[in-house]
Amino acid sequence: xxxxxxxxxxxxxxxxxxxxxxxxxxxxxxxxxxxxxxxxxxxxxxxxxxxxxxxxxxxxxxxxxxxxxxxxxxxxxxxxxxxxxxxxxxxxxxxxxxxxxxxxxxxxxxxxxxxxxxxxxxxxxxxxxxxxxxxxxxxxxxxxxxxxxxxxxxxxxxxxxxxxxxxxxxxxxxxxxxxxxxxxxxxxxxxxxxxxxxxxxxxxxx
Length: 206
Known about the structure:
This protein has helices at about 5-10, 20-30, 35-45, 50-60, 70-75, 80-90, 95-110, 120-130, 135-140, 150-160, 170, 180-195, 200-205. It has about 210 residues and is an all-alpha fold. The chain has 2 domains: about 1-95, Leucine-rich Repeat Variant (Alpha Horseshoe), CATH 1.25.10.10; about 95-205, no CATH class. About 35% of the residues are buried.
């Protein structure tokens, strides 16, 4: 896309017509225009909630975590369609808070026996698998949780994510200095949880 078209789309985010603002935001997200991240972040302050959501979804397409708070609120309190859209959008954001949020929601569903909820544990499992290897570090951190159900769910998701022997240090931050040890350790923990063994104390050795 040439600069003129991009500038026109970004300018449309300030249009008086809310439908124009929404369409411009969605288009910028689908086109992968990272130059639009700052204007889209500003659009999160729009007076219309539907415009805010369009900006949030666009930011998620761009992998920007700036829409996390709005999407979290939609996930927790929105209607069925809004919750499903928020789940999909959050799964595109490479942010450890997303993994923590999904694990918390899975635990809540277990505690309430899945009654009267629009999303299932399976939905969150699938979303975490979509996040893929970007979720490994926060999932391993979740193995240290005081809540046994969070530990169990983290281990189960790790089992379903393909853990490779080489993980890019830029993406996994604090664990890159002990990659092989951490990967082997997580595999061991997954086996232990599947056998019903409590592993909380062992995780502190990482």
